Amino acid sequence: MKKILDESSAIGKLAIMIGIFVMIPIITVIWYPQDLKYVKDFFIPSFFAIVFGFVLCIRKKEKNICRKNNVGYSSLVVLFAWGFGVLIGALPFVLAHKLTLVQALFEAVSGWTTTGLSVVNVQNSEKIFLFHRSFMQYCGGLGFIMMMVMLIKNKYSMSLYNAEGHPDKIKPTILKTAQAIFTIYVSSLVIGTIAYMIAGMSFFDSICHCMCSLSTGGFSTKLNSIGEYNSVPIEIVTIVLMLLGTTNFATLILLFKGRVKEFFKVSEVRFMFLILVIFIFPMAMSISRSFNTGVFDSIKISTFNAVSALSTTGYSTMSYDKWPDFAIGLMILMMIIGGGIGSTAGGLKLSRVYIMLRFIGSQINKRIFTPNHVMSPQYMKAEGKSAIDNQTQEEVMGFCSLYMIIFIVGSLLVVLTANCSLKEAMFDFSSALGTVGLSIGITNESTNNATLIVEMVGMILGRLEIFMVIIGLNYGFKELKNFTKIKLQQKAAN
After folding, report:
1. What's the structural domain count of the chain?
2. What is the pTM of this model?
């Protein structure tokens, strides 16, 4: 076994790992034996993935391995991992005749990308499928490459790790970094599950909701999400877990080490709480005016849903179809902003929005107030202060511009395919692109395939970072073109 793994390719290892992940929900039949008939629906795709992975592992190494340090190659490997994971994760739903192929792919994409938009009727779903959905989100929160780095040492890990969108290197080595993050993640799962049980949830609901809260995923075992429980303690536990999930892992280590002052000095953390303070109270006023609710209830509703939107978790306490347009607009803005970079959250990311606003502020100050003054704005990270240099500004502005173009185009496509209003389309597509999971009512078990495909593309772009997807696809097309050219030349020579 050791020899096989030592000679294995990254793709083979990833396929084996994905197969193991999809097999894990089978353990639920120990407590819910009525689901035993669905074991084969999980075992078949899992077995295929593991066998496929071992076949790749026993192949000889490439003679020219330098390309494996190439950004394009690494991005393509990451794309393959997520695409393969989606396929294997979707097959249990198809084999069990629970969903159509497109619906199953949508559910798997939503699960692995930690989005939370769903076409599953949770009231009629067996425990094994509910656990499968939650476990996909929990693993997707860390990412396939992060899990592979921790479980299986690979000399190309650094390149793959960066390609999946992990900018943080907390420890001296990538392996130790992954182990530190995994320790925080698992510890939080244990503590969060216990907290949910103390708050009144059953063990099964507790572990499922905790996995989805920490991964900022949002899948629920209940039709009305967290609102089904109508419990303030459960809402408080969920808010804490959502905030932990949306915080950069490097910053979380400061908190877990008890360095609270340093934690609250981090610009991204301060900016997150500032946004919540700015958005919660106007939202509460709007809700109070529309639904004639009291001040406490309005603040409670707006606080939970604002944290859910900004953290890109997607849990809700009530339906949004009758919410006032002003509150809906604030929710859309928070879903676009998103959570912390290097966390399980999606969206533009807090640090990018922070840098963009600092850049805009410096430009206004430079052009109007102090034309001859050269400014070098900084922001505080877990590792210390960092200057916002020209390259950082260009990268941030480029990413934000492309993100907004995709948001506009995607929203218009949802209007076209779902035959809904622009407000509804913007809400659900910002939720898909930001990997949030909240819906105003467009995305459900009766949604047409065209709309689901548009939202799937949005979820993938949102989770894997837009430029990584573009680089990976471009590299793949070039490799395919070169391969086809060589085959044609060989055919002509023969």
Report:
1. 1
2. 0.90
